[in-house]
Specification:
Blueprint lengths: L9 H11 L9 H16 L11 H14 L3 H13 L2
Length: 88
């Protein structure tokens, strides 16, 4: 494996040598480390992205009014509505 498109850090180079040399050592507290990695992966996959959406002025005004009544930003309300509609 070569670093064609990017430069590896010292730690990454060390890990690469260990992997290529098959010098695997189980980490201490494996279950805890596994939980942290799973959580980090989920957080990575759950990142938000900005989107553009066209709405009529009337719909946007109603959305903003409902958001004010609920005491939340209208974009948060819109996101919540979409999340409820499409599910997990």
């Amino acid at each position: 494996m070569s670093a064609k498109y990017f430069e590896l850090t010292k730690e990454e180079k060390k890990l690469l040598k260990e992997i290529e040399g098959e010098k695997f050592v189980r980490v201490k507290n494996f279950q805890e480390a596994k939980k942290e990695i799973v959580l980090a992966t989920r957080n990575t996959l759950n990142k938000t992205r900005n989107i553009n959406i066209r709405l009529s002025e009337k719909i946007l005004a109603k959305l903003k009014a409902k958001a004010v009544k609920q005491g939340i930003p209208y974009q948060t309300l819109a996101s919540s509505i979409l999340h409820q509609f499409v599910g997990n």
